[in-house]
């Protein structure tokens, strides 16, 4: 569908110039196609939605590597394939998987439990201090992304993205940990 | 987090505006690397005696020009390889002209060199200098280039790493060739190639780790 390519190029071009609505439309239209690629490439993994989100984050982080003269779809599909393969490699290397929701729910609720708190502190010690600080503020102390952003001089969106990324990292670390315990 | 929520929050953070385009960053990285390489070169090696009169012989000039062409083409290929989905284009094939020219020079020298001198020219007297120095002089260039490439998005990190290693080695060999006084293609077409291949292999290994994102 050459139309689709042109349409997406148009949306992403506008997005890269700061048009948030065009960007939202681009991501929303692209997501189902990405989901199909992730599902096919991962052999129907249970955590397809996590991979889709990683692809969208990757698209977001690397959107400056698309050149306006190039078609969007080869760029987008290459990122989707790469991130799906990457997730597959990590899953195989790790054996078990811990869904992100598990970690996300553990973070604010189980801080009363000293073991979990110690484990969490230990995990947080293993990601960079900037990300760890954001997880502490948002996840443990319950501050809003806006508050944290104002303190760190970041936009609210950037804080949320950093928080989400840090959770993905913590999930990986927790998975590796659980693996070693087995 | 639901995917729709993620989309909403990503869209609330538009306007990427990369600090500098990839090509510019790569240029700065390579130039910084080249500066370090040149310091190492003048400190440890230095240009050969009567460099310019030696290089006026086209067969001698080829050992400086061919690696330079190789390195520059490899820079182009590397930059393309860190854009997801981008084709490597015709340069991908054109770059093979360089090893082809090296092989042609090798066979020309083989034919024109008297039989009893062939082995002497082939082995030369500086293999233990040539191989390590091509690799060592490549390192700063590679490091500067790689630092820039990390802001790209390599979907084949080992390939991009290898190409970056090839680019760095091509430029490093150009520099090295102004020190080296082994002027027979029997020597330089063989041992320069070997040094470049080692650097390319190391580049692939390092790139496979550092260019993942």
UniProtKB/TrEMBL annotation, chain A:
Domain RNA polymerase sigma-70 region span(s) in chain numbering: 29-92, 140-171
Swiss-Prot/TrEMBL GO biological process terms: DNA-templated transcription initiation
Protein name: RNA polymerase sigma factor
Keywords on record: DNA-binding, Sigma factor, Transcription, Transcription regulation
Family annotation (Pfam families): Sigma70_r2 (PF04542), Sigma70_r4 (PF04545)
Lineage: superkingdom: Bacteria
Record organism: Primorskyibacter flagellatus
Family stated for the protein in its record: Belongs to the sigma-70 factor family. ECF subfamily.
Molecular functions (GO terms): DNA binding; sigma factor activity
Signal peptide: none
């Amino acid at each position: 569908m050459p139309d689709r390519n042109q349409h997406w190029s148009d949306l992403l071009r506008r997005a890269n110039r700061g048009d948030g609505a065009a960007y939202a439309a681009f991501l929303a239209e692209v997501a189902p196609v990405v989901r199909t690629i992730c599902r096919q490439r991962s052999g129907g993994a249970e955590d397809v939605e996590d991979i889709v989100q990683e692809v969208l984050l990757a698209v977001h982080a690397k959107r400056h590597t698309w050149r306006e003269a190039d078609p969007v779809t080869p760029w987008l599909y290459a990122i989707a394939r790469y991130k799906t393969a990457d997730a597959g490699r990590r899953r195989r290397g790790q054996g078990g998987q811990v869904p992100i929701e598990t970690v996300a729910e553990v973070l604010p609720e189980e801080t009363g439990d000293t073991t979990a708190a110690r484990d969490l502190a230990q995990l947080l010690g293993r990601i960079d201090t900037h990300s760890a600080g954001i997880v502490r503020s948002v996840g443990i102390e319950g501050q809003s992304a806006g508050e944290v952003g104002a303190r760190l001089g970041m936009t609210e969106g950037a804080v949320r993205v950093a928080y989400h990324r840090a959770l993905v990292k913590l999930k990986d670390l927790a998975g590796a940990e659980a693996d070693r315990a087995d | 987090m639901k995917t729709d929520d993620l989309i909403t929050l990503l869209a609330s953070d538009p306007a990427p505006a990369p600090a500098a385009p990839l090509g510019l960053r790569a240029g700065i990285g390579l130039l910084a690397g080249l500066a370090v390489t040149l310091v190492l070169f003048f400190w440890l090696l230095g240009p050969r005696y009567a460099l310019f009169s030696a290089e006026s012989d086209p067969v001698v000039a080829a050992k400086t020009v061919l690696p330079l062409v190789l390195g520059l083409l490899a820079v182009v290929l590397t930059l393309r390889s860190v854009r997801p989905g981008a084709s490597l284009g015709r340069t991908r094939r054109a770059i093979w002209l360089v090893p082809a020219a090296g092989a042609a020079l090798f066979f020309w020298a083989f034919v024109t060199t008297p039989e009893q001198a062939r082995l002497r020219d082939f082995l030369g007297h500086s293999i233990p200098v040539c191989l390590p120095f091509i690799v060592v002089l490549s390192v700063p260039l590679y490091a500067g280039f790689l630092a820039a490439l990390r802001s790209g998005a390599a979907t084949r990190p080992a390939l991009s790493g290898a190409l970056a290693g090839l680019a760095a080695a091509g430029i490093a060999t150009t520099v090295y060739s102004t020190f080296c006084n082994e002027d027979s293609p029997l020597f330089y077409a063989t041992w320069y190639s070997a040094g470049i291949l080692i650097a390319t292999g190391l580049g692939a290994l390092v790139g496979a780790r550092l260019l993942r994102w």
